[in-house]
Amino acid sequence: MLKQSDGRSVIDSPTSTNSTAAKSPRKKRAGPKTRTKLFVLDTNVLMHDPTSLFRFEEHDIFLPIMTLEELDNNKKGMTEVARNARQASRFLDEVVSSAEVRIADGISLKRHATDSATGRLFLQTEAINGSLPANLPMGKNDNQIIGVIMFLQKRDPHRQVVLVSKDINMRIKARALGLAAEDYFNDKVLEDTDLLYTGVRELPPGFWDSHGTNMESWKKDGRTYYRIRGPLCSQLLVNEFVYQEGEHPLYATVTEVAGKTAVLEQIRDFTHAKNATWGITARNREQNFALNLLMNPEIDFVTLLGQAGTGKTLLTLAAGLMQTLESKLFTEIIMTRVTVPVGEDIGFLPGTEEEKMTPWMGAMEDNLDVLNKTDDDAGDWGRAATRDLIRSRIKIKSLNFMRGRTFLNKFLIIDEAQNLTPKQMKTLITRAGPGTKVVCLGNIAQIDTPYLTEGSSGLTYVVDRMKGWAHCGHITLARGERSRLADHAAEVL
User: Fold this and answer.
1) Of residues 190 and 197, more confidently modeled
2) Residue 157: inside a domain
3) Do 172 and 221 fall into the same domain?
């Protein structure tokens, strides 16, 4: 096993026992088994993460001339890929221009004292006539890079040469030829998304026996608080929900954690009709937890994960309307999403920014129809007036025009957030000004953005990085409530 600079283990390739950069320091006596590896980067790695040049610690990097050519061909435009290609070129220029040795001897990748990259960068400076099998045409760029790897491995058989590429087919071809090939793992937050923080913890059966000793209890503002002490307290996170079913059920949230002491606050019961949010009540335990986060003015950032039909959008819109039109906590609701089509793109859309975004907001319109029918006594005229009032307070915005903006006292909803990269997610969340609440919704099992996986999605990234902050909360909704057909289809299809 080997680790890249973030310290996570990476699964070795079938053709090699040690195929990625090891975390252990370089030993003084460099024999054939302890030599650093040579990583050959494919273009898509640099275009996916321009900082990948500095993510391989003590190991060396080789860039074929074809990688530089493809980088140059993709630098034009305003897309995320084009921006990354330009940034990768800037990093290369920074490294090469500061070189005090010949490029052929390798250029140090260490830019400053805090940089973890201590290896060298090699650029292809001469023609390489690699011998490829006859069934691999040399005219294809991927095959030329594979030819370079075969040449490097033959030139230095005692050193391991590893292809790093996001292209699955290219990795398959390299392994078929007996070459080591790996995906780029450094951008992955988690290797297994089953380990992703859910925001919910079930208390063990004997919890009160081990944590109820010297327990303190008090009431404040109609809420009950418990100060508990025990070994489990150190594992709890602030704003994590804990529950215990049984004869005396408990549903609470963690408000303080200090060593082996924690404070639990009993949550508000949104399953009861008296606490209905815009006519909506929670149908299960996780929805109840989600509404507690959405309706809490002290929580600035909320992430909701769950499969289709779990109620993410409906609960969020209900909470947003309640706090915008009833309690006046926010001035308006802003909703945005990534415009990645599931099928073929339908082409350009006419109209203003909001009119262009309307076809992408079908989920919002469907949920508004549900929310508008919660008042049975309003009648057709009353519902029509309410619909117009609601639509006047909801703005639909495109992600393309978010940079540089600041939202004051807004309820910002980012739908389909699983299609955002970590960089895009940071750009959006940092738009929040004073009094703004940001809610991210998504299902990491439905990612449509190319080269983005469950482990590297921006939604996974923020859930993992923001957990435990006093003004942030997360819930993974587990049960579908759309219909019996939708629930069954989600399970068996």
Assistant:
1) 197
2) yes
3) no
CA–CA–CA angle 205, 208, 214 (5° rounding): 165
CA atoms of 421 and 483, how far apart (whole Å)? 32
Q: Which two tokens stand for residue 48?
A: 């996916």
DSSP string for residues in 101-119? S-GGG-EE---STT----S
Query: Residue 425 is inside which H or E element, if any?
Result: helix 422-429
**Residues 315, 299: Cα–Cα separation, whole Å:** 16
Please give the C-alpha separations between residue 298 and each of 276, 312, 478, in angstroms, as whole numbers: 20, 20, 25
Average pLDDT for 31-36 = 57
- Smallest CA-to-CA distance from 48 within 448, 427, 450, 339 is with 450
| pTM greater than the 0.85 cutoff | no
Tell me how far apart the alpha carbons of residues 221 and 202 are, in angstroms, rounded to a whole number: 26
Specify the 3-state DSSP secondary structure of 179.
Answer: coil
pLDDT tier for residue 237 given thresholds of 50, 70 and 90: very high
Whether 158 and 303 map to the same domain: the answer is no
Span 287-294, mean pLDDT? 95
**Do 151 and 216 belong to one domain?**
no
**Tally of structural domains, the chain:** 3
